[in-house]
Every structure is written in structure tokens, then in C-alpha cells.
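[SOLVED] Need 3D model of a two-part complex

Original post:
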Amino acid sequence: SQTIHQWPATLVQPVGSPLSLECTVEGTSNPNLYWYRQAAGRGLQLLFYSIGIDQISSEVPQNLSASRPQDRQFILSSKKLLLSDSGFYLCAWSAFPISTDYNSPLHFGNGTRLTVT
Amino acid sequence: QQPVQSPQAVILREGEDAVINCSSSKALYSVHWYRQKHGEAPVFLMILLKGGEQKGHEKISASFNEKKQQSSLYLTASQLSYSGTYFCGTSLLGGFKTIFGAGTRLFVKA
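Solution:
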């Protein structure tokens, strides 16, 4: 069965410090990978998605970046964190869609709660 | 592009029914429904494809009307475990992105 691992679970970082969040998927190959962010009490904002190694699309201009060095590894990074980067970061995977009319269900990791102080 | 959910919040007593709506100004190709418990990750409930179909999960079902660009989630005889925030996610052409609504907070009390 497929599993998704995301770490760390909690992170407190000062403004201006770098960030690296990692996510790995097991039990499947060539997954679509996603990073979402959820501000406190708010909805899910899509940050990045990737349909393959070195194929990453950014949805929201910001000081974050994503990389996919291996098929089942997705990394979210920042060189300098801002207060507004605080939130609940969720990595997710889905199977490659069977058609352009259909998006496979998302399976989320347990999330990283980031507080920028 | 973000789908619009209504209502924003619902308070129910155990055994009552609720309907959560999701609409889009863009053509919908598929609709996902997820439930998120406080402090946890969202969990997939069901996906609906074009064709106005209904699907069910326990006593939770949903419909999808692509002509009206709407989907509705029906919670029947609600249980305490139904409490959480419900999100609809819509798939845009291309099949790779799921964009979520702002969520509907559901609280079921005994």
C-alpha cells in the first residue's frame, strides 16, 4: 500500500531563516506531488505541483520554491522566511490521471505546522 | 478559479441532516470532497465525475451537476464523528490540479 511521509511535524523558525520541508511517497511510482498551505482557520492554497522529476509548476508568486530530486521526493524550501509564511504545510500525492477530465484523489501527509517568529 | 462553498458553517444536533454546496464559475470536470478534523490532514471522501452522478460514503452522499457547475454534499442522520471542515476540490482541464473551496465547518453536538 502507498504511504506518504512528511517531516518535521512542527517547526518554529525566526524571520529571515531558511526552510526545508521534505516529503516522500512509498508504494507507487511516478506520482503527482503537491504542496498546499493552510493558514489558521482558512482553506487549502495550492503552492506547487509536480507531474515528474524536474517538472514543477508554481501557483502563487512568493519566496518559496520546490524541488523534486527523485521520483517520490518533494522538497519545499525558502531562503528567507517571512512572518506571512506561517501556516500548516501539507504535502500530497495522487496517481497520474487517466484522462484530462479526471483528477485522481489526493492523499495528504500529516502536515508540518510552521510558525515564523 | 476557487470554487465557492456554502454555508460557511453549520451546527447540527446528532441525527439531523445537512447539505453543503460547492459551485464554480468555471467549467467543472470533476469534483472531490474531503473532510478535515481539527489539527489533522484532509481525508478524501469521494470523487464525482461528469454525468450528474451521485456517490455515497457511509451516510454521506454527493451529487454533481456539470451544467449548473455545482456539487452538493449530503450528510444524513449526522453523527458526532462527522464534525470537521468539509472541502470541495475542483479539477480544471488538464487533470493535474485540484483547487479547493474555503471550506464549510460542520459541528455536530449531542
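Edit: The domain at 4-109 of chain B is CATH 2.60.40.10 (Immunoglobulin-like).
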